[in-house]
Design goal:
single chain; alpha/beta; Beta-Lactamase; Rossmann fold; Helicase, Ruva Protein, domain 3; 4 domains; six-stranded antiparallel β-sheet; 21 helices; 21 strands; globular
């Protein structure tokens, strides 16, 4: 066996330590207690003066010691919760930058030691092991072992620390996700509580990017309704972000800790939609092998988003009206009713007043859902938002694909701003993802990376859109044109066409039937 193998081979005591640490992490529910036990076991088995843990906060570029303890020679504990230091300094800074562990046998000769910072001035650092706490996405902190009491730290000691750090890092990440580390969550909670005016002025409200006066007016209306549970109707063309608006309202209002469920009323057949919304009992129909809760029951106490409510069949509208009036519904096949208390947010890309006039939408349901209307302007009516939206999407996709965020050339930006975007923000988002993909490593997005419909509007092969008539009539013509183009591109394959349109296959079938589009 080589020297390296001898140094890093594990004894029965080492394996026992790994088992006990892993058991403590998974068995002890109290986060502070779990850390205390783990650090104590490290101190005991490694025979060291102390063990400690610091978390990394990338936004602040700082390391923070979380609520844990420094184990001292006399068995006492020192609270080091408030200690912090910049993330480019010291051994921890080196570990973060190099993404690897470090073993320091003589701290007095190592320049990486941050002389201005000491965990305990009465217990100076002589030797150290510092390992990164890695998750699949980032280094979330570092784990220290301080001062070997007898002899020196070995490669085996460092390897043991690295193995323990993997399980510990995931436990800390889970704790963050579930809100255990409140000192880090509180600042985010404070920022995300409501749509504040100062956030609006920065034109980035909870993922809603805008600088136009029409969107600022929308934000102002949202701010008035965000703290109450009033029924809301969101009207806007396809791709304007109706579901995003609904989520912002829910997750920043009084029901934020309650469920939020959404259903596209035009994506399912009538029978499936009824089962999805209201649930069913065993044996209600072929394939109903057990009872199933509907979305209304699952969302009790929270919010239900009825997306594209204008496409709801008339018989379903009657049942929805009962829920809004009485808070009551009957599961499919059941002989009993269920009472629920939910907040309704409805959305539509149709003009429901026109639909009422045509007999497609019930008047009583309309007045039930249209208590507080919010209208999202289409992108062609707020072109001043296009540059910041485009830049935002490029940065977002660059991070996703691990690339440097490129900039748009002035000519490309001019073309983007002159295009009418019938698919609205969603179409712009898709265009930026496509452009970034084509650009590869280029740091500029020029007009050559844009779609032909944008780069050369006069070269469109499709028919010129007739914009005469009402908003609803124009919207319907856009839908018909997009459905036909998608079916043609997909060679008649409806599953492929629905993917191109960003809707479900059933949603596409509903539109083909509604507009009597030739197959």
């Amino acid at each position: 066996m080589s020297t390296i193998d001898t140094e890093t081979s594990f004894s029965r005591q080492d394996l026992k330590l790994l088992y006990e640490v892993s058991t403590s992490i998974h068995a002890i529910k109290d986060f502070d207690e779990m850390l205390r036990v783990v650090l104590h076991k490290i101190k005991e088995v490694f025979q060291i003066d102390g063990a400690s843990l610091a978390l990394h906060e990338p936004d602040q570029k700082m390391f923070y010691f979380i609520k844990t303890v420094e184990m001292q020679r006399d068995g006492g504990q020192k609270d080091i919760e408030k200690m912090h230091f910049p993330d480019h300094l010291g051994v921890a800074g080196w570990v973060l930058q190099n993404n690897q562990s470090v073993l320091i046998s003589d701290a007095s000769k190592d320049k990486r030691i941050y002389k201005e910072f000491s965990l305990d001035k009465e217990l100076p650092t002589r030797s150290m092991i510092c390992v990164p706490l890695r998750t699949p996405t980032a280094i979330t902190g570092v784990l220290y072992a301080i001062n070997k009491l007898e002899g020196s730290f070995s490669a085996k000691d460092s390897r043991l620390m690295e193995i323990m750090s993997v399980t510990l890092a995931m436990a800390i990440e889970n704790a963050k996700n579930y809100g255990v580390l409140k000192q880090y969550a509180n600042s985010l909670e404070e920022k995300n509580r409501r749509l504040m005016s100062e956030v609006q002025q920065r034109f980035k409200v909870h993922g809603l990017i805008a600088s136009s006066s029409s969107m600022r007016q929308l934000f102002s209306l949202m701010e008035k309704v965000i703290d109450v549970t009033t029924t809301i109707m969101i009207q806007g063309e396809t791709g304007t972000g109706k579901e995003l608006i609904a989520k912002v309202i829910h997750y920043n209002g009084p029901l934020k800790d309650k469920p939020f469920v959404a259903e596209n009323c035009g994506a399912l057949s009538e029978n499936l939609l009824e089962s999805e919304l209201f649930g069913h009992v065993k044996g209600a129909f072929t394939g109903a092998i057990s009872d199933k809760k509907g979305l209304f029951e699952m969302a009790d106490g929270g919010t239900v988003l009825l997306d594209e409510i204008g496409e709801t069949p008339p018989s379903m509208q009657v049942k929805l009206l009962r829920v809004l009036q009485d808070g009551q519904f009957r599961p499919v096949g059941a002989s009993y009713c269920i009472n629920v208390n939910v907040r309704i947010i409805a959305s539509t890309n149709r003009n429901l007043e026109d639909e009422m006039a045509k007999g497609n939408f019930r008047e009583d349901l309309y007045y039930r859902v249209n208590v507080f209307p919010l209208t999202i302007p289409p992108l062609r009516e707020r072109k001043e938002d296009i540059p910041i939206l485009a830049a935002h999407f490029l940065k977002e996709f660059a991070q996703k694909f691990n690339r440097t965020s490129p900039r748009l050339t002035s000519s490309a930006l001019e073309l983007l701003s002159s295009y009418d975007w019938p698919g609205n923000v969603r179409e712009l988002q898709n265009e930026m993802e496509r452009a970034l993909t084509l650009a590869g490593s280029d740091i500029e997005i020029s007009e050559k990376y844009l779609s032909s419909k944008i780069f050369d509007p006069m070269d469109n092969t499709g028919p010129v859109l007739d914009r005469s008539g009402t908003l609803q009539e124009v919207t319907e013509r856009i839908e018909i044109q997009m459905v036909r183009e998608a079916l043609e591109t997909a060679g008649g394959n409806r599953s492929h066409a629905s993917n191109l349109l960003g809707i479900t296959r059933q949603g596409l079938l509903n539109k083909i039937k509604r507009y009597d589009i030739e197959k």
